[in-house]
Amino acid sequence: EDSQLSAIPVIVLTTSTAEDDVLNSYKHHANAYITKPVNMDQLFDIITAFEQFWLAIVTLPPAPDS
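RE: above sequence
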């Protein structure tokens, strides 16, 4: 509900694969739901992909005026 925070992307990174958890996350406005892999190399690949997507590719709205 805080307009200062409303443009921050929310990515759920979890071990849960439960359908209810996925649905509940999106119901509460998550932008992405990712199930963590067990392999550390795969986890680092996911983190790198997040960074590339959210910091280099996506155009986010400007921050609201204070």
